[in-house]
Write a structure and sequence with these properties.
By secondary structure, this protein is an alpha/beta fold. The chain has 11 helices and 13 strands. The strands form 4 sheets. It has a 6-stranded parallel β-sheet, sandwiched between helices. A 3-stranded mixed β-sheet has the order 11-8-13. The protein has a two-stranded parallel ribbon with strand order 6-9.
Length: 314
């Protein structure tokens, strides 16, 4: 268990996941949280990361920093996604080990699992068949990070764990019109359509893929729970265990935002993986379950969008 005054480094604290972890730690009474912005510490620079760990010697590390994006961003810049993510995670994990970090939690993504994995996806299906091509570079980087944690545990006796969240949403999300994930993109699109009085909104794909969504503060709660209650080489899935179609998600988002026009579908645009549902039985057996239902979470995310106009401009 982490002591309340333990020195805890949250890498990526300005992002959606990192900021939620900081909120979760503070609300749980942890008082010695270390953060660095990108301008203060570029995690892709090995010497800078090494110097930071030598100086600060954190007891615990939550590695939530990552270069992220949706289907378009991943397709446009696969080399950048592979290099940036591989470099920053290796730098942080390696320096944590070298400087005696008691425990590290590495955050991956459900895209690490094969495109046609069994559904729901158990942790054991990792590397059993080929990945989804549209985000392969990001997936390969995340697989490398969790495997490095596993290999350090085996070779050097570290206590480095990894968690694989499902699709996330919530405060501090990215609402960029082309480089955001599906739910924040829908929030922005329906908000703008409502404001402009548009009679129709066109969405990508067919609407048929099935997806699972987790409110980011629930993920943060799970990460703190795992840091205090789990040790092991195998990753742990974090999700709700519930899924719905993109079409259903789209209609629910329109309802929350109050858009009453027609929703059209552009089937020439890619759908991505047909189904992505995590098997969360392992985490539930450990004693954790999500709290925020999807409609409530979308309302909270929309409030965040409305109250943070700068974020809407990304």
């Amino acid at each position: 268990m982490m002591n309340k005054d333990a020195k805890i480094f949250v890498a990526g604290h300005r992002g959606m996941v990192g900021s939620a972890i900081v909120r979760g730690l503070e609300s749980a009474g942890y008082t010695n949280i270390i953060t660095r912005s990108h301008s203060e510490l570029n995690l892709c620079r090995q010497n800078d990361v090494e110097d930071f760990f030598v100086a600060e010697k954190p007891d615990y590390v939550f590695l939530a920093a990552a270069k992220v994006g949706g289907i378009v961003a991943n397709a446009e810049a696969p080399a950048d996604f592979l290099y940036d993510n591989m470099t920053l995670e290796m730098n942080v994990i390696h320096s944590a080990w070298q400087n005696g970090c008691k425990k590290l939690l590495f955050l991956g993504s459900s895209c690490i699992y094969p495109r046609m994995a069994p559904q729901p996806m158990p942790e054991s299906c990792l590397l059993t068949s080929e990945l989804e091509k549209t985000n392969e570079a990001y997936a390969l980087a995340k697989i490398s990070g969790l495997k490095y944690c596993e290999y350090l545990n085996k070779q050097y006796g570290t206590d480095f764990i990894s968690a694989m969240p499902t699709n996330l949403y919530g405060p501090n999300d990215n609402y960029h019109p082309t480089h955001s994930h599906v739910l924040p993109a829908l929030i922005r699109r329906f908000h703008e359509a409502k404001e402009a009085g548009l009679a129709q909104v066109t969405c990508w794909g067919t609407g048929s893929p099935l997806r699972e969504f987790l409110y980011v503060d629930d993920l943060a709660d799970a990460c703190i729970f795992l840091m205090n209650n789990y040790s092991g080489n195998e990753t742990v899935n974090v999700g709700t265990g519930k899924e719905l179609s993109i079409r259903e998600l789209t209609e629910l988002t329109a309802k929350v935002i109050g858009y009453e026009g027609e929703i059209l579908w552009d089937s020439d645009k890619p759908d991505g993986t047909p189904r992505k549902l995590l098997d969360v039985s392992k985490l539930e057996k450990l004693g954790w379950k999500y709290k925020t239902e999807l409609e409530d979470g979308i309302r909270l995310a929309y409030d965040d969008f409305l109250n943070n106009p700068m974020r809407a401009e990304r």
